[in-house]
Amino acid sequence: MNFIESFGGGALALLGAALAAALACVGSAKGTGIAGETGAGLVSEDPGKSGKALILQVIPGTQGLYGFVIFFVAFSKVSGVIGALTVQQGLQILSACLPIGIGGLLSAIAQGKVAAASINILAKKPDDWTKGMIMCVIVEFYAILCLLASFLMLGAINI
After folding, report:
1. How does pLDDT run across 27-79, given as a tens digit for each residue?
2. For the domain that residue 77 is a member of, what is the CATH number?
């Protein structure tokens, strides 16, 4: 029995589901934290901008939601058959969960940095704050591609 076989297919599948949620949520926590630090500075100087700063802060949180969606899809797919999964099936589930896990982690952090810069736009040119939102949406597009990749891969796995 080799190292991978000792885990079993079910454990590998659960690892994939867990990584999808955990990595994407860690990225979202980091990204919203980065934006929140900048937003707190702005709001301390101009409390009237708190609503717009909060909107920009919450944008990097979507990757955590995407990771949880893939966790739910993967967990639903294997629920009830965890003990019967082959190593190959477990690795398939694990592999399918990696795009949103890794992509969500990295894109949420990048998006948090863009959101923080967008909060600086809000501070200096309040009428142009939507330009910063558009910049955040560009990063979001790649998180959505990761979500789609994981979703399509999970859908193609026969259990």
Report:
1. 999 999 999 999 999 999 999 999 999 999 999 999 999 999 999 999 999 99
2. 1.20.120.610
Cβ-contact 34, 113 below 8 angstroms:
yes
Distance, in Å, from the CA atom of 6 to the CA atom of 90, rounded to the nearest integer, reads: 12
Contact yes or no for 56/39 (Cβ under 8 A)? yes
Is 62 contained in some domain? Answer: yes
The tally of domains found in the chain comes to 1
User: Which structural domain, as residue segments, surrounds residue 136?
Assistant: 7-156
Q: What CA–CA distance (Å, rounded) separates 123 from 146?
A: 32
Residue 1 within a domain: no
Long-range Cβ contact pairs of 48-55 (< 8 A, separation 24 or more)? 49/122, 49/123, 49/126, 52/122, 52/126, 52/129, 53/119, 53/122, 55/133
Structural domain includes residue 136: yes
Q: Tell me: the pLDDT tens digits for 95-133?
A: 999 999 999 999 999 999 999 999 999 999 999 999 999
Residue 100 lies in a domain: yes
